[in-house]
Hints:
Shape: globular
Largest sheet: 6 strands, parallel
Amino acid sequence: MSHFLFLNASTREPGHVGNSETLARQAAAALPAGSAQTWFKLAELELPPFVDLRHTAGSYPPPAGELKTLLDATLAATDLVFVSPVYWFSIPSPAKTYLDHWSAWLRVPGVDFKEQMAGKRLWVIATSGNRERAQPMFDSYRLCAEFLGMQFMPPLWGKGGAPGAVLEDGEALAVAQTYFGEPVPAWNVKD
């Protein structure tokens, strides 16, 4: 059974739904029957800043608290979906903090993070205030997936900006209806 982990990286105020989440929820509503879904808003989790211990301690202790919850959910998922608005042509800071912790999880004895991530699929659902591609953000996600032997899926990208703007992007909404089951049209993938 497929288990989709939605990692919402928006920094909108608590209680406000952003365009990327709106588009992701449209896509999630069309998931195949029997697919499990878990959602996290990364900005609302108490994730400690990442501290690089690779060249001193060499390994990391098992994570605790919400970081452990997030690790467990990551390992349990078959598919990771970054719900990622484009901020300054890059990955939003909550997602970057989460990804930085992957460096620690690679070095937690007994976790075998790289081996457990291999073969999972990594998806990106993103919006921005214009149709400029923000390719550096997509490349960052793709390179993370490739490093761990994950399958990087073509991103879904919609027109964002003010709250609710994506609801006027008929093309993105139409793609969202089949995003997890059909090939993504050429306009929406890396050239």
